[in-house]
Records
---
Amino acid sequence: MAAVSSERPSHSRAMLGCLTATRGPAGWLSLLALLSLLALAASAPALAQAPAPPSFQGGTVYGGGQIGKRFASHKIRFVSIRVSPERSLLRFYARFDAACAGLPQGALASRIKEVPLTSDGSFAGDEEYVDAGDVATQQGSWQFRGRFREPDVARGTVRFRFTLHLNDGRSFQCDSGVVRWTVRDPLRAPGSGVLRRAGAYFGHSAKPIPLPKFAPLLLRVSRDRERVAVMAFIQEVRCRDNREHSVGPALGNFPISRRRHSFGGTASYSNRFGGQTERITVTIRGRFTRRRASGHLRVKTRIVRDGRQIDECDSGRLRWAAESAGRG
């Protein structure tokens, strides 16, 4: 930059001299030729430079993944990315179901990996892993790749392939297939939140400061634009003993007001695990606007064993935001 700025005064003096010294047709032709040479010389360094990297901000969280056009949990795939402050590394998070031959319900796969971020905004990861759970162990690999296309959006693919070893001795081969994902940052660089027919919206839920590590959020509008067909997200809740765990609600059928394009409601459901039941209540409020869809949400849970409550957890009131995926 210093070399370019230091040359500008000399170019200006040369052109001023030409303007005062050239008169008549021959002089003007010479001036035109000189101007053409100067323009060519000025453009040559620019043509030799590599394309500028995307202007995404460091420390930013991007959320989304993939959501089907019909309500089905196996069509909801969560992906989230956190970029390091210096924009040299990123942490990639993916969580979704993989199909398993002989096991109709499939299996949930969830991994996190930190990888380098190149100057052109691209990244990739490949990892073998063993993940031991309460009732089964996964052993396999996962691969992902992607690139930042704009300051507020990245797109790519991810795939899980693993063997699921159940504690009862059975084993199943599982494969998610290649999943195409999109993530967006609707807080720092909002795009569009206009209400669209069958529109998909990607983003995340977050406390104002700091942003969570990973809290992807997906939303799908019905074809008639009269309701939120599906809203799904991952969120941490804190329990009375200060322990945290994540929940993944997938809710639907929230009516959208025609005048303000707002929606909201409360829904409850239960999950059973390890001889106990977690009763989850989710409250959602939101609105579609020109720049983003946004609102607030809260998740409360009660953990019950043998008919007696043994714990309760709460996310607190959280802000969420999402923007149009741009394509279904």
---
Amino acid sequence: MRGQWERLAHVLAKLALALGLVAVPSVHAQSSIDFTLTLEGDASCSSAPALQDAIEARVGGLVFTDDPRAARRIRVQVIEPVPSAPGSAPDSALEWSAVIAMRDARDRVVGERRVSAVGASCAALDEALIVVITTMIGIADPTASVAPPAPLPEPEPKPEGKKPPAPAVPEPEAEPLRSDIHLALVARAELGFLPGLAPGAALAVGFDLGAAVLSIGGSFLPYAQEDLGTGARAHFMSGTGEASLCLEAGHPFGASFDFCAGVEAGVISARTTGLYAGAARVDPVVRANIGARLRAPLSPDLGLLVSLQAAAPLAFPRYFFIEAGGARRYYHAVELGIATQIGIYWIFSS
């Protein structure tokens, strides 16, 4: 049995070399990039801490941390096993496979590999996981000191006679081009375009283009009011859609800091109570926005979003209300407004 495992490890190592993944590196000093490792799978799988210890022993340095803001996050998802091919292994053996995904500080998938192994338990994947994750760490941290690759062991002599078929090891799939999609749901507050501090909510979908994120969404502010005196009030609400482009500016404390610019368009409606005359009306609103936002990851697929933007109106709604005595009261938008948002975002990889 020991010889079978050694041959399987030999096949996996040769496969890694053939794919140009570089031989397993040995890091002499502590890695300059922090990594986290999580594993989701069967109860028979080795734990994430056990894999971390084995990988650090293999590379000869400390590479893992418990800080969720680490520059690289490695996630292993073990797929439900299937029966192995007839004749390739004992009847009790199963074919296990796992997907290894690495994300950067902006929660983008920067590398993905798939490994397989045949065995009675999920622990059969250990050697393949250690080899591939070690290689991915070496590629992600080119500044680390890397020793020359160790020579591969010579294969054991094969016995004469009928040769049993070797376990099937599927080749890793070519990594496709990826585009992360962000869905953000936030609480929003505006100052300047409606009376007072107007609360509301916003929903946006972002498309990660690499160094930039294109965001399309909308916001709704259901209630703001202006006291017109003598018991009269003006009630306002607004709904707008926005398209913006955000450019990456840095990664403070493991978060992503972006500068954004965009255009917003929609309507503002107004109605009055307690006035002699003051019919409800709707006016268009068009604004140019510029601002900044901070995205802090809370998990591989979830994060906190905070933004602040200034907006200059390109259209100026004005509202006139006539009292019984004929005097006019009015409200109009200011020349420059401010909006702030705080909420959460989800990441979907395509």
---
Amino acid sequence: MIETILTVGAAILVLAITTATLFWLTVRFRRRLDFYGPYGIHLEQLRFETERALYETRRAQDAVGSRTPRLAGAQPPRTMEEIIEDKKQRILSIPNVTFSYRDEPQLRNFYNDYFQEPTVENLISKLTTEASGQVTATFPKLLESRLQGKDLREWIGTIKLPDTSLNGMFVRYQRETIKSKQVALGLEEVDIELTDLDSFDQLVKQLATEFDLQLTEGLLGPRRAQLKRKAADRTLGKLEQATGWVLVEGKFQIARQDDLFRCTYVHPVNEYLPNEIGPVQITSMVADNALEPALRGNWHGSVGRAVPLKIYGRVWQPLDVKGRVWDLQITPLAIY
């Protein structure tokens, strides 16, 4: 009787242990399904390994620098500084322009204020008057002494300020303001840092080729979008901080709004932004009757098309990401 009781008790104990083991295994398996991806890869661990791989890749790139071997014929990507310098040298070498629009009164005022040629003309007129004996002054005598006794009339006769065309005024004014860094260049360019994004894509490719791990777009999409946005933040920051005088060149879409033409440059940074941001644009408005008569017909025939233009002007409204203002507006001094 006692042996029977012990046997039954042992069987019940084994059954209980077996049930508890199965329950524990079931719970653990479900936890693995919750915490592990469909390919048996722990998602948190994958994220950690991804971040670590990106960090190690950046360290390696910084360490080897220019010593990294390149394929034959491959050219390293140009930096933003190189792009802007090329643009600067090209614009500085422009001998003349064909205006589509120019604010003539403003341009003359800016030119005269910058180079102060009316002051020189007034001084020469005064000296000429004094040298002719109409006005008695000591200044002509001082100049004559500096000129080693030469007649001031002869010196003044050698001075003649050439008549400068409006085209020449603008080219010179543009050249000098760019040289003195009073004009921002390159706002139409994409200033991005793709190191993290490239490293991420390389890691995904390596996981697929070496470990046959095909990650779903649902897992990769948000991270790739985050890295693209990070790459574009530098450009958005420049467009937000834009102020003062700028020179923008690119293909502007021409649209007609009543008696105005709207020039719109769709910024290439949009390629790196999610759909809920943007589109980022650079725009400028010009009145129909303010266009150069010789080119007015061209503008009328270009409505709905993209036209290569350069716009030299002042920032009226910069980008405002928080305010969701994606339009950088420029008041033009000249369009050519």
